[in-house]
Amino acid sequence: MIHFSGVAIQSGYTLIPGPYKNNLLMLNGYTFAQKRKRYWYCSKKNAGCKAKINMAEDGVTIREAVIEHFHEPPTYHVTKTGEYVFFRNCHLITMSSGKQLVYYKGHTFSFRNPSRRHAYCSKYVLKKCPARLKLYPDGRLRAATNTMEHNHPPPKLFKNIDGKFFTVA
């Protein structure tokens, strides 16, 4: 278990807007929700995560922390204005043609190279859409660029009985 105490740490975390009116504390990519003035618990506490942070009396300095998580950190996109926007992870879908696409926030992205580390909006060629994704080798989302700036509506996808997807114009 990763645990530290006794050493005051002032930097290394960021306060970001939460889904409700309270801020979230982000440390090492993980988010923590505030419970009382000095106590922050992992946002996945209800799922059983034991990570927590205890702040010093000043409310700014980390006094004690247990930062071992059993889950992946959430994915946030930082906009050009510095705003943090939460995104669910992407996943692969197979089209009826057999082509695999990345599905993310209602839009589809296609791979432009064999490494499958970069995916461009499927409307990149037709509409010059600037949205792009960077992926880890295992397919998890690493970074999202311009995904809030699609210049077209999302495709209308339907699923066949065999589990493959198709679009309707």
Structure described in brief:
The protein has 169 residues and is an all-beta fold. The chain has one helix spanning 124-127; strands at 3-9, 13-17, 23-27, 30-35, 39-42, 52-55, 62-66, 75-78, 84-87, 91-94, 100-104, 107-111, 118-121, 132-135, 141-145, 157-159, 165-167.
List the helices and strands and how they pair.
Blueprint: E1 3-9, E2 13-17, E3 23-27, E4 30-35, E5 39-42, E6 52-55, E7 62-66, E8 75-78, E9 84-87, E10 91-94, E11 100-104, E12 107-111, E13 118-121, H1 124-127, E14 132-135, E15 141-145, E16 157-159, E17 165-167
Antiparallel strand pairs: 1-7, 2-3, 3-4, 4-5, 5-6, 6-7, 8-9, 10-11, 11-12, 12-13, 13-14, 14-15, 16-17
Describe the structure.
The chain has about 170 residues and is an all-beta fold. The protein folds into two domains: about 5-75, Single Sheet (N-terminal domain of TfIIb), CATH 2.20.25; about 90-165, Single Sheet (N-terminal domain of TfIIb), CATH 2.20.25. Helices cover about 0% and strands about 45% of the residues. It contains one helix and 17 strands. The strands form four sheets. It has a seven-stranded antiparallel beta sheet, with no helix packed on it. The protein has a six-stranded antiparallel beta sheet with strand order 10-11-12-13-14-15, with no helix packed on it. Strand 14 and strand 15 (about 140-145) form a beta hairpin. It comes from Spodoptera frugiperda. Pfam families: FLYWCH.
The helix fraction, in percent, is under 10%
Order of helices and strands: EEEEEEEEEEEEEHEEEE
Number of helices: 1
- Spatial strand sequence of the major β-sheet: 1-7-6-5-4-3-2
* Sheet/helix structural class: mainly beta
At the fold tier of CATH, the topology name of the largest domain is N-terminal domain of TfIIb
Q: Span between N and C termini?
A: 53 Å
Q: In what range is the share of β-strand residues?
A: over 45%
